[in-house]
Amino acid sequence: MAVNYATVTWDQLHRDARLLAEELVANMPIKGIVAVTRGGLIPAAIIARELNCRLVETISVVTYDEEERGEPRIIKSPEAAGDGEGFLVIDDLVDSGVTARVVRERLPKAYFACLYAKPAGKALTDRFVVEVPQETWVLFPWDTAPLFVPPLASKPIESDS
Ligand SMILES: O=P(O)(O)OC[C@H]1O[C@H](OP(=O)(O)OP(=O)(O)O)[C@H](O)[C@@H]1O
Ligand SMILES: Nc1nc2[nH]cnc2c(=O)[nH]1
Ligand SMILES: [Mg+2]
């Protein structure tokens, strides 16, 4: 399957997290936020700031062994969140939905929100901001760096032959 890339800048991420926070105000009051590490950490920090929430827990789910997708494992439990009642769970993205499913099983009463969602996983969310095509790979600002690109005119001209 062809892979397209969608680059998300820090500005876009901040804007999308604030848009999500605006929607989540309807859930107030909340007991706290659970960030799904690592990708949910920065979105959760922005949302915690907007919702004036100081109780921020984490859950860490590992779904890959080496390069292969393995049996998902919770390597850090969100002890402060109980069964999730009154808590918002924040992740950056749902793709296949494997991570979200494990999180929901552990926190069945929590409200699950994320910034970006692909079709295969979006039904596992309670709210998301932007839908992304399944074949698109989202490049987050913490995964990328600005790179020098040579001017077009300096590239060698390819011949047709
Ligand atoms: O719906 P899924 O197919 O499970 O994919 C979505 C998950 O994948 C990424 O996390 P990843 O496991 O790569 O770890 P990270 O957050 O530590 O980067 C992303 O942050 C989501 O948590
Ligand atoms: N950065 C990134 N991580 C992912 N994990 C699962 N899908 C994605 C994606 O589209 N982008
Ligand atoms: Mg993640």
TrEMBL record:
Record-listed xanthine binding positions: 95, 138
Source taxon at top rank: Bacteria
Reaction(s) the record says it catalyses: XMP + diphosphate = xanthine + 5-phospho-alpha-D-ribose 1-diphosphate; GMP + diphosphate = guanine + 5-phospho-alpha-D-ribose 1-diphosphate; IMP + diphosphate = hypoxanthine + 5-phospho-alpha-D-ribose 1-diphosphate
InterPro entries recorded: PRTase-like, PRTase_dom, Xanthine_Guanine_PRibTrfase
Assigned keywords, A-Z: Cell membrane, Glycosyltransferase, Magnesium, Membrane, Metal-binding, Purine salvage, Transferase
Signal peptide span: none
Pfam families reported in the protein's UniProt record: Pribosyltran (PF00156)
SUPFAM superfamilies hit by this protein: PRTase-like
CC terms in the record's Gene Ontology section: cytosol; plasma membrane
Residues given in the record as guanine binding sites: 95, 138
Domain Phosphoribosyltransferase: 10-145
Needed cofactors: Mg(2+)
Intracellular or extracellular location(s): Cell membrane
GO terms of molecular function: hypoxanthine phosphoribosyltransferase activity; magnesium ion binding; xanthine phosphoribosyltransferase activity
GO biological process, one term: GMP salvage
Residues bound to Mg(2+): 92
UniProt: 5-phospho-alpha-D-ribose 1-diphosphate binding residues: 38-39, 91-99
EC number: 2.4.2.22
Binding residues annotated for GMP, in chain numbering: 95-99, 137-138
NCBIfam families: PRK09177.1
Subunit structure: Homotetramer.
Function, in words: Purine salvage pathway enzyme that catalyzes the transfer of the ribosyl-5-phosphate group from 5-phospho-alpha-D-ribose 1-diphosphate (PRPP) to the N9 position of the 6-oxopurines guanine and xanthine to form the corresponding ribonucleotides GMP (guanosine 5'-monophosphate) and XMP (xanthosine 5'-monophosphate), with the release of PPi. To a lesser extent, also acts on hypoxanthine.
PANTHER family given in the database record: XANTHINE PHOSPHORIBOSYLTRANSFERASE, XANTHINE-GUANINE PHOSPHORIBOSYLTRANSFERASE
Record-given protein name: Xanthine-guanine phosphoribosyltransferase
Source organism of the structure: Acetobacter tropicalis
Source organism phylogeny: Bacteria, Pseudomonadati, Pseudomonadota, Alphaproteobacteria, Acetobacterales
